[in-house]
C-alpha cells in the first residue's frame, strides 16, 4: 500500500488544557488495553479449567494475544507516521471490541486462543498508538509528569482488573465470560471521547509503502519458534528431527526478515534507528524487562489459585502490592524526571529493583509466607514502574517527530516480543516441571499415572481430593523456578540500562535539526496539513 505521507515540521507543543482534554481519551484507551489482560489474569485458571484445557493452552491464551499485538505493533506505528492517528486509534478500538465479543462466546480453549489472537490485533494498535499520540502532543521534558498519569491508569487497571475478574469469575450471576464483555463499555466510551477531543495535525512527505512483507516474515518466524518451545522437551526431545523441522524454518525466516528490513525503503522495524546506541540499548533492556515481567507476572494468578488454593477474588486482592508499586514509583519518578531532565539513573535503578523482586519470588513454594511473596511482588511493581515507560521515553527523545511512530512502535514491539517469548518459554518450563512433579506425586501415593484420565490438571473441581492435593503442590513448588529464570533474564536489562548514554531530555516536540544521516532528514521537503 502506498499513500501521500505526512510530516510535521516545526511542531509546537499543545496548550495544557488541550492536552488534558485529549489525554482523557487516551488514558481511557490505555485503561481498556490494560484491563483486557488484567481482568482475565486471575480468572484464567477457572476459564481454562471450565473449558478442560491444558497448561499449554493456558499459556497460549496469553501468548496468542501478545504475539498478535507484537506482530502488528510496528505496522500500527508506521501507519501512524503516514495517516490520521485519530482514525487509527478508532479502528484499533473497533477491532478490540470485536475480539472481546468473540472471546466471550468461545466454546473451547482452541476457539478462545483464536479469538484472543484477533483481539491482540487491536491491543497492538492501542499500545503503540497511545505512545505515538502522546509523543506528538507533548515534548519529552514535559512528558515525565504525564507518565505519572499513565502509571496511575496502568495501576488502576492492574489493581481493579484482577479484583473485577476474580469477582466476575466467582459470581454465579455473571460467570467468567463477562471477563471479556465487561471491557466493551469502556472501549466505546473511549471511542466517543477521542472522536470529540483528539485533534492532531496530519503531516505528509512523498510516497511511502507499508512493509507488510517484513511484518509477515517476523510474525511467522516468531510464531514457529514459540510453537516449537511449547512442545519441545514434552512431545519430543531438544535434539530431534521435530526440532530441526520447526526451529530451523523459524530461524531462517527471521534471518530473511533482517535481510529484508535492511533493504526495503520503509522497513516495519527501522534498522537505521534501532542501530543507534540509545534505541538499541533501550530495546535490549525492554526485551529483557518484557520477558521477565510478562513471563513471570502472568503466572502469579495461577500460583495463588492453583498452588495456594485462593479464590480468583482473593488472588486479585493479593496482586494489589504489585500495582501499588507500579503506581507510586511511576508517579514519583515521572515528576522527578520532568524537573531534572535526567532519565538514566531511574531506569538503572528500576531494572535493579526488578531483579531483586524476582530473586525474592524465586524462593517461593506452596508454603512460603505471604509476607515474603508480597515483598517480592512489591519490588517487581516498583521496578516496572521505574523502567518500562521511561525506556520508551529515552528512545523518543533521540528521534525526529517524523520517525516517532516507528521508533515508539519498535521499542513497544521488542518489549511485547520479550513478553511473548517469556510467557511461552516460562510456560513451557512450568508445564514440564508440573507434569514431572505430578507423576512423582502419583507414584509416591501409589496411584497409576493414568489416574487423572482425560481431566485437565487445571480442572481442579473434577479431580479427586488426593489428586487435587498433588497438583496444587506441584504448581506451588514449580513456580519459584520460573521466577528464578525471570531474575536471570532481567539481569540483561540491568546491563543494557547501565550502558545507556546519559542525556538530558529535550523541551521541544521535534529535534531542532534532524540528523543528516536520518532518512528524510531534510525538513524542507515536508509539508503540514490539518486533519
Automatic annotation (TrEMBL):
GO cellular component, one term: plasma membrane
Name assigned to this protein: Drug resistance transporter, EmrB/QacA subfamily
Keywords: Cell membrane, Membrane, Transmembrane, Transmembrane helix, Transport
Principal location class: membrane
One of the Pfam families matching this protein, by short name: MFS_1
InterPro entries noted in UniProt: MFS, MFS_dom, MFS_trans_sf
Biased composition (Acidic residues): 510-520
Keyword Transport belongs to the record: yes
Molecular function terms, GO-annotated: transmembrane transporter activity
Subcellular location per the Swiss-Prot or TrEMBL entry: Cell membrane
Positions of the UniProt region annotated as Disordered: 510-531
UniProt family annotation: Belongs to the major facilitator superfamily. TCR/Tet family.
Taxonomic source organism: Prauserella marina
Amino acid at each position: 500500500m502506498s499513500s501521500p505521507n505526512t510530516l510535521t515540521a516545526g511542531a509546537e507543543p499543545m496548550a495544557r488544557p488541550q492536552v488534558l482534554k485529549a489525554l482523557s481519551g487516551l488514558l481511557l484507551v490505555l485503561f481498556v488495553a490494560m484491563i483486557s489482560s488484567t481482568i482475565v489474569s486471575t480468572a484464567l485458571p477457572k476459564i481454562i479449567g471450565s473449558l478442560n484445557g491444558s497448561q499449554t493452552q493456558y499459556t497460549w491464551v496469553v501468548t496468542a494475544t501478545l504475539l498478535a499485538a507484537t506482530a502488528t505493533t510496528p505496522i500500527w506505528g508506521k501507519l501512524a507516521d503516514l495517516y490520521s492517528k485519530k482514525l487509527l486509534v478508532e479502528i484499533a478500538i473497533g477491532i478490540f471490541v470485536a475480539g472481546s465479543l468473540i472471546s466471550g462466546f468461545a466454546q473451547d480453549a482452541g476457539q478462545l486462543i483464536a479469538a484472543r489472537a484477533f483481539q491482540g490485533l487491536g491491543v497492538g494498535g492501542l499500545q503503540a498508538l497511545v505512545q505515538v499520540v502522546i509523543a506528538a502532543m507533548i515534548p519529552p521534558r514535559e512528558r515525565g509528569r504525564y507518565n505519572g498519569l499513565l502509571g496511575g491508569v496502568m495501576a488502576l487497571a492492574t489493581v481493579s482488573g484482577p479484583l473485577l475478574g476474580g469477582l466476575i469469575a466467582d459470581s454465579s450471576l455473571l460467570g467468567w465470560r463477562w471477563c471479556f464483555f465487561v471491557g466493551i463499555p469502556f472501549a466505546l466510551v473511549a471511542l466517543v471521547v477521542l472522536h470529540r477531543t483528539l485533534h492532531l495535525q496530519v503531516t505528509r512527505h512523498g510516497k511511502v509503502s507499508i512493509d507488510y512483507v517484513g511484518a509477515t516474515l517476523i510474525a511467522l518466524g516468531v510464531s514457529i519458534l514459540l510453537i516449537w518451545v511449547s512442545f519441545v522437551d514434552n512431545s519430543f526431545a531438544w535434539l530431534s528431527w521435530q526440532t530441526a523441522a520447526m526451529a530451523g524454518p523459524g530461524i531462517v525466516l527471521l534471518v530473511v526478515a533482517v535481510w529484508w528490513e535492511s533493504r526495503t525503503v520503509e522497513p516495519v522495524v527501522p534498522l537505521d534507528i534501532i542501530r543507534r546506541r540509545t534505541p538499541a540499548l533501550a530495546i535490549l533492556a525492554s526485551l529483557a524487562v518484557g520477558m521477565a515481567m510478562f513471563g513471570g507476572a502472568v503466572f502469579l494468578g495461577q500460583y495463588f489459585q492453583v498452588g495456594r488454593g485462593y479464590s480468583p477474588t482473593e488472588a486479585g486482592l493479593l496482586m494489589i502490592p504489585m500495582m501499588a508499586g507500579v503506581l507510586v514509583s511511576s508517579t514519583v519518578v515521572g515528576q522527578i524526571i520532568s524537573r531534572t531532565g535526567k532519565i538514566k539513573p531511574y531506569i538503572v535503578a528500576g531494572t535493579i529493583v526488578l531483579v531483586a523482586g524476582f530473586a525474592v519470588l524465586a524462593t517461593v513454594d506452596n508454603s512460603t509466607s505471604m509476607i515474603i511473596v508480597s515483598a517480592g511482588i512489591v519490588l517487581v511493581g516498583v521496578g516496572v514502574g521505574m523502567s518500562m515507560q521511561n525506556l520508551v521515553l529515552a528512545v523518543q527523545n533521540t528521534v525526529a517527530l517524523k520517525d516517532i511512530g516507528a521508533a515508539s512502535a519498535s521499542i513497544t514491539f521488542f518489549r511485547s516480543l520479550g513478553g511473548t517469548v517469556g510467557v511461552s518459554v516460562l510456560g513451557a518450563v512450568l508445564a514440564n516441571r508440573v507434569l514431572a512433579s505430578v507423576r512423582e506425586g502419583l507414584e509416591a501415593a501409589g496411584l497409576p499415572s493414568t489416574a487423572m484420565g482425560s481431566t485437565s490438571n487445571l480442572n481442579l473441581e473434577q479431580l479427586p481430593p488426593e489428586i487435587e492435593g498433588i497438583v496444587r503442590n506441584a504448581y506451588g513448588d514449580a513456580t519459584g523456578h520460573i521466577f528464578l529464570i525471570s531474575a536471570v533474564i532481567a539481569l540483561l536489562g540491568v546491563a543494557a540500562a547501565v550502558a545507556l548514554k546519559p542525556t538530558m531530555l529535550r523541551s521541544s516536540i521535534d529535534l531542532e535539526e534532524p540528523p543528516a544521516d536520518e532518512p528524510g532528514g531534510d525538513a524542507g521537503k515536508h509539508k503540514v496539513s490539518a486533519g
